[in-house]
Amino acid sequence: MRASQVDFENAKNQVKLLKKDPGNEVKLQLYALYKQATEGPCKMPKPGVFDFVNKAKWDAWTGLGDLPQETARQNYVDLVSSLSSPESPGQARPGAESKQGAYETLVVTSEDGITKIMLNRPAKKNAITTKMYQELMLALQAAGKDDSALTVLTGNGDYYCSGNDLTNFTDIPPGGVEQKAKDSAVLLRDFVSCFIDFPKPLIAVVNGPAVGISVTLLGLFDAVYASDRATFHTPFSHLGQSPEGCSTYTFPKIMGSAKAAEVLIFGKKLTAGEACAQGLVTQVFPDSTFQKEVWARLKAFAKLPPNAMRASKEVLRRGEREQLHAANAEECRVLQGRWLSDECANAVMAFLSRRAKL
Ligand SMILES: CCCCCCCCCCC/C=C/C(=O)SCCNC(=O)CCNC(=O)[C@H](O)C(C)(C)COP(=O)(O)OP(=O)(O)OC[C@H]1O[C@@H](n2cnc3c(N)ncnc32)[C@H](O)[C@@H]1OP(=O)(O)O
After folding, report:
1. 331 CB near ligand 1 (under 6 Å)
2. Any residues with CB less than 8 A from the CB of 254 and at least 6 apart, and which?
């Protein structure tokens, strides 16, 4: 999964040959990844507010933060590969199969027996929109059935994921906020169920900070590899909300009830080292060698007999699946009420009006 300079040059040429215009958002991501790969983090002065085009480019590039140049090069190659249409198979990087170029919020690629699902809203720290929840469910369903031995979830840019996109709260349907809360609880329950029922080894490659639901879900993964730049933050009480992702079941089991309470009730942010010591993370790697070391390891895992790995996962998880579904249902029921509370409305408004951050 490591792109060479040749892959990068090929991808650069492929972009010029794309038959379909990928749209402005994708073009900005291509621009940002290209600049990051070739020049490193953005050091340009911020353009003026009326310089719309350069401001959009600057936002996209700075949104990648300190993403290592090698990772930016890989993400650029993956993104171009995902854009290559089936009518032009010659454009795809040899060996890398783009599963679904149609995703708006994800880049999904399969190579070396590994399907990689990459959250792809780096300028928004990979916050999960309603569209992204839906696309993730589709991508997981497809990955569960494809030929790959392993499935990996990771993030593009300097964040793994900043959790639920808080603008999800602003899109209120004609049925009002109660209807929105009800629909969101159904969406969330279905979303988390995809992780509970995922049939093959699922690995999180946590490339940077993780917030909210992207942290709680980690208890449902089979391995969690983290950069030493990653942090793990679940500020549910700060947001007037309550935990999800089956964390009310998995976290006490993983780290004990006292540590789980500190994280899930009081929102204690864990460093990668602390998360590893508490059992939420499998292993931490220095950021400078993170991608290289993790992908080498995953490639080796992917050569193991896939049916044996699936069978082992099934035996490990079968006994608790019922409890996990029950925890998921109860968490969604409680959250539905929380979303209608003043505490939640005030916290979301404070973020959206730029008065508060975590
Ligand atoms: C009525 C019911 C509706 C319910 C719908 C819910 C559906 C399912 C819910 C599932 C439950 C999940 C819960 C959670 O995940 S809780 C955690 C939510 N996440 C947060 O609270 C994080 C908020 N973000 C931040 O605090 C900061 O952005 C952060 C610390 C992550 C990064 O700070 P930094 O200074 O480095 O970067 P910026 O803030 O400038 O971020 C860059 C741009 O990205 C936007 N952004 C980042 N995170 C989010 C987010 N979670 N939601 C929306 N937007 C986000 C940020 O606003 C910047 O955008 P602009 O460049 O446009 O300003």
Report:
1. no
2. 219, 260, 278, 279, 280
How far is the centre of ligand 1, averaged over its atoms, from the C-alpha of 322 (Å)?
31
Q: What is the pLDDT of residue 251?
A: 98
Question: ipTM beyond 0.90?
Answer: yes
For β-strands 223-227 and 202-206, DSSP reports them as parallel
Nearest CA to ligand 1 atom 1: 181
Distance 74 CA to ligand 1 centre (A): 25
Q: Which three-class secondary structure state does DSSP give residue 345?
A: helix
Full DSSP string of 182-234: HHHHHHHHHHHHHHHT--S-EEEEE-S-EETHHHHGGGGSSEEEEETT-EEE-
User: Which tens digit of pLDDT belongs to each residue from 194-231?
Assistant: 999 999 999 999 999 999 999 999 999 999 999 999 99
Handedness of CA 134, 331, 282, 259 (dihedral sign): positive
What is the full DSSP assignment across 286-329? Answer: -GGGHHHHHHHHHHHHHTS-HHHHHHHHHHHHHTTHHHHHHHHH
Please return the burial class of 174, using the count of CB atoms within 10 Å of its CB with bins 0-12, 13-18 and 19+. exposed
CB 344 less than 6 A from any atom of ligand 1: no
Residue closest by Cα to atom 19 of ligand 1: 163
83-137 pLDDT, tens digit per residue, is: 774 433 223 344 555 554 679 999 999 999 999 999 999 999 999 999 999 999 9
Q: With a 6 A CB cut-off, is 212 part of the ligand 1 pocket?
A: yes
3 state SS for 150-168 = EEEEEECCCCCECCECHHH
C-alpha 328/C-alpha 94 separation (Å) is 41
The structure tokens listed for 52 are 């719309």
Q: What is the mean pLDDT of the chain?
A: 91
